[in-house]
Design brief:
- It contains seven helices and seven strands, in the order E-H-E-H-E-H-E-H-E-H-E-H-H-E.
- The protein starts with 6 loop residues before the first strand and ends in a 7-residue tail after the last strand.
- About 45% of the residues lie in helices and about 15% in strands.
- It is globular and about 50 Å long.
- The longest helix has 26 residues, at about 105-130.
- Helix 4 (about 105-130) packs parallel to helix 5 (about 155-175).
- The chain has a single domain (about 5-245), classed as NAD(P)-binding Rossmann-like Domain (Rossmann fold, 3-Layer(aba) Sandwich).
- By secondary structure, it is an alpha/beta fold.
- Strand 2 (about 30-35), helix 2 and strand 3 (about 60) form a beta-alpha-beta unit.
- A seven-stranded parallel sheet has the order 3-2-1-4-5-6-7, with helices on both faces.
Length: about 250
C-alpha cells in the first residue's frame, strides 16, 4: 500500500441526502472519502462517482451499521485501502415515530441498534486506528437537538441520540489529547423533499426558530469544517439549530 498523501475521512451514511453533501464537501477540502451505504446501491454509486470527480481515490462499502461484524469488515476494507484515518464522521441514522405505549421491540432495535450501538462500535473501531497515529485526528458524531427535548412520539430515537452525545464526551475524555471528539446536533432542516408539506409548514416551523429560517446542509458543513481545523475543542455538543432550543 502506497504512502497516503491526502487526509482520509471515514464516514457512515455517506450516500444519504445530508451525508452525500457532507462527503462531497470534505472531498473538496482535500480528503479522500471512504463511506458506508446500506439501502440503495444505485444512489451510493452516484454519490461515489460525484466524489471521485474531486477525489479519485475515494471508495465506498456496503455496511449495515446495526451489525457489529459488518462494521468490523468495513474497517478491514478501509485499512486495506488507506494507511491513515484523519476524520471519522458518524452520519448513519434511523428516524421514525414510535408513539407510546405501543413501541415494539423491533422498532426499538431498529432505532437503537443503528443510532446508538452502531455509532458506538464505529467510534471504537475508528479510535483503535487513530490512537496509534502520530498526529491529532478527529471524530464527529451527528446527533440531534431532540436529545435535549421531550418528543412524546419519538422516545427510542431521542434516547439513542442522547446516548451518543454522552458517548461523545466519554470518548473525548478517554482519547485526549490524540483524538478530538465532538458532536453536531442539527435542529430543523429541509433535507428530505419527501417531508416537505409546503411553504405554509416551512413558515410555521421557521417561526419557531429565533433566526427565522430552516437549517441548510451548508450550516452543518461549515461546522464540520470548523471542527476539522480547530485543535482546541473536544467533548462538545454543538447545536446548529438557529436558536431553536431557546424557544
Amino acid at each position: 500500500m502506497a504512502e497516503q498523501q491526502h487526509k482520509v475521512c471515514f464516514m457512515t451514511g455517506g450516500s444519504g441526502r445530508l451525508g452525500k453533501q457532507i462527503a462531497s464537501a470534505m472531498a473538496r477540502e482535500g480528503y479522500d472519502i471512504f463511506f458506508t451505504w446500506h439501502s440503495s446501491h444505485a444512489e451510493a454509486r452516484n454519490t461515489l462517482e460525484a466524489i471521485q470527480a474531486i477525489s479519485p481515490s475515494s471508495a465506498m462499502v456496503s455496511c449495515d451499521i446495526s451489525n457489529v461484524d459488518e462494521i468490523k469488515k468495513a474497517f478491514a476494507e478501509f485499512q486495506a485501502r488507506f494507511n491513515r484515518l484523519d476524520l471519522l464522521i458518524t452520519s448513519a441514522s434511523n428516524f421514525f415515530g414510535t408513539p407510546l405505549p405501543d413501541v415494539t421491540e423491533h422498532e426499538w432495535d431498529r432505532l437503537v441498534d443503528t443510532n446508538m450501538k452502531g455509532t458506538f462500535f464505529t467510534m471504537q473501531e475508528g479510535a483503535s486506528i487513530m490512537r496509534n497515529q502520530n498526529f491529532v485526528s478527529r471524530i464527529i458524531t451527528i446527533t440531534d437537538i431532540a436529545a435535549e427535548l421531550t418528543w412524546k412520539n419519538f422516545a427510542p430515537y431521542t434516547a439513542s441520540k442522547a446516548a451518543v452525545q454522552h458517548l461523545t464526551r466519554v470518548f473525548a475524555k478517554v482519547f485526549a489529547p490524540s483524538i478530538l471528539v465532538n458532536s453536531i446536533a442539527p435542529g430543523t432542516f429541509t433535507i428530505n423533499p419527501e417531508w416537505n408539506n409546503g411553504q405554509e409548514l416551512d413558515d410555521e416551523l421557521a417561526n419557531k426558530i429565533p433566526l427565522k429560517r430552516m437549517g441548510d446542509p451548508e450550516d452543518i458543513i461549515r461546522t464540520i469544517r470548523f471542527l476539522s481545523q480547530n485543535d482546541y475543542v473536544t467533548g462538545q455538543i454543538i447545536n446548529v439549530d438557529g436558536g431553536r432550543l431557546l424557544s
